[in-house]
Amino acid sequence: MNKKTGALFNHLKKESWAEAASNELKGDSADALNFGFGQSISLKPYYCKEDMAEVSWVDNFSNSYNATDHITGAARTWVNVQTIPVGTHTQQANEAALSALNSGAEGIIFDIQQPLNEFTQLLNEILPEFCHLYFKLNSGEMPSLITGLKKHSQWDDFNGGVWVNDPDTESLGMVLKQTTGLPDFKTFIYCKNEEG
Description:
The protein is an alpha/beta fold. The chain has helices at residues 3-10, 14-24, 49-52, 90-102, 120-123, 142-151, 169-179; strands at 35-37, 41-43, 81-86, 107-112, 132-138, 159-165, 185-190.
């Protein structure tokens, strides 16, 4: 980022952004861009530092590599991951994950397509201290995921996170509480739109 571009971003105020957004929306308020998940989670399209004061708990989930107000241009952390669909055959998913990790992938996204009661076979021989593990699932499956992950001998070493389809407040709160002590394990919210 050059100095001229950086200067533009450093001086942009929320009001200026809202005005530009309103112009793009042909006069509608920038509030028309607000969105949410379910009835209890609402988000705005633009946040400034002052907005974050009321949600300081979010700092627990911030990317530690980017925890600075200074734009340095330093590299961010990127992870090469492969998505593995997980249906009823967890052994096949495990074998596919091990193959991907042994072929250069740095992490796996397990796309849990059916409820799983046991994660031992899925995680067999996978060493979470050397890779990133992500799980994409429905909110009702989160308690069994957390139980399964805790059974894994390397619980404290997990890097990665959870994508939650159609989250409910209770399950989401449970996962956030259980994973707060894991600085490298994040919870993401993923909602499919009606178009798929």
